[in-house]
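tool_call: predict_structure(chain=1)
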Amino acid sequence: MSTTTTGNSPIDTATETPALVHRPGRWIDNWNPENQAQWEGGGKVIAQRNLKWSVFAEFLGFVVWQLWSIVVVQLPAAGFNFDIGQTFWLISMPALVGATLRFPYTFLVPKFGGRNWTIISAALLLIPSTALGFAVSNPETPFGVMLFVAALAGFGGGNFASSMSNINYFFPQREKGVALGLNAAGGNLGVSVAQIVVPIVITIGAVGTLNIHLAGWLWIPFILIAVWGAYKYMDNVSSAKADFAASAAALREPHLWIMSLLYIGTFGSFIGFAGVFPKLISTQFPEFSTFQIGAAAVSLAFMGALVGSLARPFGGKLADRFGGALVTFYAFAVMAIGAVTVILILPVGNFWLFLGTFMLIFGATGIGNGSTYRMIPSIFAARSGVKDAHLNSGDVGTQRKTAAAIGIISAIGAYGGFIIPQVLGASLASTGSYANAIYAFIAAYVVLMGVTAFFYLRRNNSVAGQRI
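tool_result:
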């Protein structure tokens, strides 16, 4: 017999959880992953199947979200002539819209069901993909139209919140670090794949020009596969109900805002630097912006997003073992050290040192992404009075509040994807250098180290006695 402790009262999960009920429309009733018998009796297979298709759909969301980070670098060769400010707006606008969409997307899984909303949100990616192809085909397209089409790419950014909120319901607390890390990493890999595939596709076979319209149209068949896969293989969990009281309670929780700040530092840095990295390379080291391999042009910018994405589940595993707060603290320390090193390298003009240092920063952001996300369920369980909050997600009410918090925190954190390009662009436009912006990032990382230590590593903090 297995037991779960909620507050101070042990609950016999083996006897009190009814059997799973499958209804038309792929709805599942009585879902409780904390019940060991249910989990081993088929729940684990269901959860992993949903995770696989969630990863694929979210992967495509990130691809679409970050297409403009690659396209912007190619616009001059395609006949477009935008100034520095306009260029950085095209890079950062998808992040601004995507971050904002994450707020409503958080609540649409309970409203429509995880499977149903994955179908809808994946299908919406067809709009920005198609629009991008048409907009970049004509160098006379006005900047306002280009900015609007870039904003449509924000649909891809919104997917993350609903996907993570949905997967949070499928896995027990002891496995959420790995599950959420894999789900997020699979999505984050979309940035890297887009940054390596798009430059190849738009240059290979092109004679004297670029097939830049393929940057958007290339992904349409894959989006259709994701829609079909979600329809065919994913499930809706009836326990994932819209609980606005729990959402309001999450908003009143001070730790939601603390974790939002930390997530701006980790995920915001990842998505911000990933979006602007191709532009950073082309500005500082134009001779290394692309490498010609046969008929195709390849950019090394993809390496940053790749390293950050692969590091994310590792950050979740480290957080499962040592606690997310400790891992997050050291992630910010490495990010600060990396940023200091970038300042020292910029005057030297060594591309390979520059690239290697940014790989260190990207790796730290990825680990920090996994560890901060792992902290959220533990914090909300601990604040609800659950013992051993690192291993126990609490009752359904606590889980719903946690799911709402995850979506809200992911939304706020994503604004870093807008802030970082804007700060870098302003620094470049005003001083001709990125140095002032990087100094600001160093100061921010040091402050975030202090915030992490004060609220989650200090003795006698509000969650003392729990491993967060």
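agent: The two ends are 27 Å apart (CA to CA). Proceeding to next step.
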